[in-house]
Automatic annotation (TrEMBL):
Residues 64-333 form the Fatty acid desaturase domain. One of its GO terms (biological process) is lipid metabolic process. Keywords: Membrane, Oxidoreductase, Transmembrane, Transmembrane helix. Its EC number is 1.14.19.3. The chain crosses the membrane at residues 211-235. GO terms for cellular component: membrane. This is Linoleoyl-CoA desaturase. It comes from the Bacteria. The lineage of its organism: Bacteria, Pseudomonadati, Pseudomonadota, Gammaproteobacteria, Pseudomonadales. The keyword NAD does not apply. The keyword Nucleotide-binding does not apply. One of its GO terms (molecular function) is acyl-CoA 6-desaturase activity. InterPro entries: FA_desaturase_dom (IPR005804), Fatty_acid_desaturase (IPR012171).
Amino acid sequence: MREDRELSREEIDAFGAELDALRERTLADLGEADARYIRRVRAVVRACCWSGRLLLLAGWFPPTWLLGTLLLGLGKIIENMELGHNVMHGQYDWMNDPELAGRTYEWDIAGPSDFWRHTHNHIHHTYTNVLGMDDDIGYGVVRLFPEQRWKPFYRWQPLWVTLQALLFQYAVAIQHLRLDKVFKGRISREEVRPLLRQFNAKVGRQWVKDYLVFPLLALALGCNALAVLTGNIVANLIRNLWTFTVIFCGHFTEKAAVFAPSTLEHETRGHWYLRQLKGSSNLQGSRLLHFMTGNLSHQIEHHLYPDVPARRYAAMAREVREIAARYGQTYNTGTMSGQFATVLQRIWRYRLPQAV
């Protein structure tokens, strides 16, 4: 694998200036086309979810259960990735639409949006791939880099990762609770209790909606409540597995790098951009793939520009790749299957203490 060229301080500053200029040009070009796009996305989410739920009311009759489940799962994926995630980054705050306000949007997932805005928007995007500071590195249960200190329970991390993938919305939700620090006595139970109440309330609302209200509605209408219940369960499972795969492919591939906390000392804007580039991985594919990933298939561009509407990343990627090449830096991209294969290799390899 080609080594990245070591940049001088002047080159790093110039690198940062070029990426800043790209950001400013893109923000200056935002307008009605971007507003129409995100409103259409919102309409697609509603159409998929409600058509899926209506089809599930028809019960097991082929192909209504399968089609209804797939449509509901599709709606949940798009809401999670292209709508909720991007809106909560403030990408559409300039529209002044209350339904698309980054600070108040609440998404259709177990974790409260306030939790995500802190652990993801603030912590992860500030300290991307910095060991001991970015909790997204393995989410506390997986060793993915040799720089992570080995612990005995990592021997079983293929099992932990499988459970994490199946229950991904809950894994993301409890991240903000910092239960590891509670168990170690670094955070008191009194401090975490209000967060736990907020977590329980959100999970309760999600369970009531998906696993009680709609099955009871089916029962009241003389429809098959079990078909509706299982359809909701499988739709959430589909969404969990897809988002897990996309997120792990964007952060933990073979060429993704992690950094020591000392990296943050005297870090300039150019250094920050360089860290985002080195710690991220892109996915090659069709426009449909990019849409279904919430454009996190352009994870490099998302880490560089988290507050820029994600629909712009494809166009920005061409210039980012050219800038990276001019400065002798690797632009980590590959097919989804290829990138995920390297993630699985990391999970298997680094489960052992001697793996370096």
